[in-house]
Amino acid sequence: MRTKKPEIHLGLEGIYMAETSICSVNGIEGKLYYRGYSIEELAKHSDFEEVCFLLLNGYLPKEKEFLSFKDALVKERDLDPEVLQVITDTAGKGLPMDVLRTAVSLSAIYDPDVKDNSKEANMRKSIRLISKISSIVAAIGRVRDGEEYVRPEKKLGHVENFLYMLNGEKPSESERRMLDIMFVLHAEHSSNASTFSTIVTGATLSDIYSAITSGIGTLKGPLHGGADEAALRMMRAIGKPENTVKYINDALAGKQRIMGFGHRVYKAYDPRARIIRGYLEELREHASPEVENLTAIALEAEKLMIKKLGKAKGIWPNVDFFSGPVYTHIGIPSSLFTPLFAASRVPGWCAHMLEYWENNRLIRPLEYYTGKTNVKYISMTKR
To answer: What is the pLDDT of residues 275-293, one digit of tens each?
Structure first.
């Protein structure tokens, strides 16, 4: 006998699965906090390495702790030869996110702590993952451009070293700072789809490499990690600022989705988008003609979308919308946008996994069955 149909929460929307002290997202007011610190404060005063420490440990480090943490990141930058070989063999053929997922999964084999799931070992593995995934993304970019792998430079900071490994030369201070802020803004965002899939895998007491590989696979989807690339494609399709109004109006009339607008949680202006917008305004003074054109299109589209859908329907720019022009200014190809998102998000994924394991429970939701029962089997000759 079928029970009364329960309330179905599609996408598990509105369901609380755990307690956390890592991240708070206030979608109504457009507020975001990492371990209690507002994203505005961290973007202004902190950097990615310090944010990594904060997310993993729960507090801001003292100088000695921070230097030790940075040293640990530096020591883990270089890639195992076998992992690098797989990247070399596949990066020119496969999608960057597929290559990244494969390289991260393979990296587990060469981790000295692979069989140790203690809290201390998982912290060491988290540091390795944060460090190595950035190197993997840089290596993918090099191979796709037909260039040789650039070995990491120990004297450079995390983001500066990433750009050095990607481009073969040290970035300017403005480029380094701008990308560092992008890493900070993408480092964590509560129980989003990729974080949830990371926890689902880890909750089986699988290892942290398997969990992070799940997160990467989830992030690959265009409804989660690919929106910044899609938004940039839209800007390039618009072509010129004066074409923006017609393009947006036609798209809305055809009920097409405008990538980079709207968010599952935010019903106000995404605070990360507001920060990126500020930097986009700043770089216009010394941007290339291409980036200046993209910026003009982005700002015109923002103005129109807010007028049409902002206050009326709660559809505002999200973090993905302004990211494309900024990455283009820094010299990062659009094919690396989502892998770069993954490299930025690793500390958040790892922090949630470490926290969840403190009070682990296998995740097993229910489904309400609507199919038949007691169906009689008929042999194949009589069907």
So the answer is: 999 988 888 878 899 999 9
- 270 in the Ramachandran plot: left (φ > 0), alpha (ψ -120 to 50) or beta? beta
Between helix 158-167 and helix 119-144 the angle, nearest 10°, is 30
Q: Which residues of the chain have pLDDT under 70?
A: 1-2
Whether 381 maps to a domain, the answer reads no
The sign of the torsion formed by the CA atoms of 202, 355, 267, 320 equals negative
Residue 74 identity (one-letter amino acid):
V
| pTM of the predicted model as reported, rounded to 2 decimal places | 0.94
pLDDT at 2: 58
**Residue 154, exposed/middle/buried by CB under 10 A (0-12, 13-18, 19+)?**
exposed
Q: What is the pLDDT of residue 358?
A: 97
Q: What is the number of structural domains in the chain?
A: 2
- The answer to the question of residue 379 being in a domain is no
Query: Which residues are identified as catalytic?
Result: 224, 263, 320
Strands (DSSP E) found in the chain: 23-26, 31-34, 37-38
